[in-house]
Amino acid sequence: MAALTRISRPSSIPFSNITKCLYFSTTSAAQPETTNNSYLPNINFSRKDPKDRNVQWVFLGVPGVGKGTYASRLSTLLGVPHIATGDLVREELASSGPISQQLAEIVNQGKLVSDEIIFNLLSKRLIAGEAKGESGFILDGFPRTVKQAEILEGVTDIDLVVNLKLREDVLVEKCLGRRICSQCGKNYNVASINVKGENGNPGMSMAPLLPPAQCMSKLITRADDTEEVVKERLRIYNDKSQPVEDFYRSRGKLLEFDLPGGIPASWPRLLEALNLDDYEEKRSAAA
Ligand code: AMP
């Protein structure tokens, strides 16, 4: 947890060092069955002492667990960008660029897109952020495979990996209730979850996360939030992404966090687990 005491330090690490290593050309949208290493970056990244830069965190967790919600809140609190690779993929899809048709097929089946495309999109996002003076990051939805984790580990230091966990029956309900405002792009959830406790597990209630009135008529459902695709995404997570938890666990970077319920119950507990519960107070005292 040493990194948590350093979060208010100014940042100076340029992203270009990371992006130089991550950026390479796009060829195919689908994740190849056997990964061809020839396109992988030639890694030569000089690591900076964490006290000289902003936080570099990763949020892991199955689709629908709430990574986006909590990563976005933390990014506002800590003043670091929240970078969700799923959002980058959706932006690429919406742009109707040369690979968007190929991407749509993969994403709508709940499958993973190729490492090449993900690293390209991530690199572009980091370069654009660097130009705006951003530093540090909270990554959400990346890395999704051990290979992605290895590449990331090869180019920079990740300080902390938060692994959000929630019961699977609740997850499916949450995914099916997920909505996005087609205008402002914010995420909401119309599901009202009330599950009884069983087999020693406590019950759980989650109120819907409804949008403001102006967004209500503009809500859309993600094409990959159907029951069939959600189940496929959960299967792929267990197959490809669960090993990423072990990857970070074995490096002593994984913080396991069982969500106790909706945002009102979970947010204060998460801040406590991250040693950030009195962060605002400390920050105003230091100012
Ligand atoms: P998400 O919003 O994180 O559920 O991502 C939506 C979709 O984007 C996923 O189902 C994948 O098809 C794709 N995607 C997002 N991040 C990655 C990644 N790190 N690796 C491969 N595919 C990804």
How would you sum up this structure, described in words?
- There is one protein chain.
- The protein is α/β, with parallel strands linked by helices and 287 residues long.
- Helix content is 42%, strand content 13%.
- It has helices at residues 16-22, 67-78, 85-94, 100-108, 115-131, 146-155, 168-177, 213-216, 227-249, 263-273, 279-286; strands spanning 56-60, 82-84, 137-140, 160-165, 178-181, 187-189, 193-195, 204-206, 219-220, 254-258.
- The strands form 3 sheets. Strands 2-3-1-4-10 form a 5-stranded parallel sheet, with helices on both faces. A 3-stranded antiparallel sheet has the order 6-5-9.
- It is globular and about 45 Å long.
- The site of adenosine monophosphate (AMP) has 17 residues, from helix 3 and helix 4.
Concise overview:
The chain is of the alpha/beta class and 287 residues long. It is built from 11 helices and 10 strands. Strand 5 (178-181) and strand 6 (187-189) form a beta hairpin.
Ordered list of secondary-structure elements with their pairings:
Blueprint: H1 16-22, E1 56-60, H2 67-78, E2 82-84, H3 85-94, H4 100-108, H5 115-131, E3 137-140, H6 146-155, E4 160-165, H7 168-177, E5 178-181, E6 187-189, E7 193-195, E8 204-206, H8 213-216, E9 219-220, H9 227-249, E10 254-258, H10 263-273, H11 279-286
Parallel strand pairs: 1-3, 1-4, 2-3, 4-10
Antiparallel strand pairs: 5-6, 5-9, 7-8
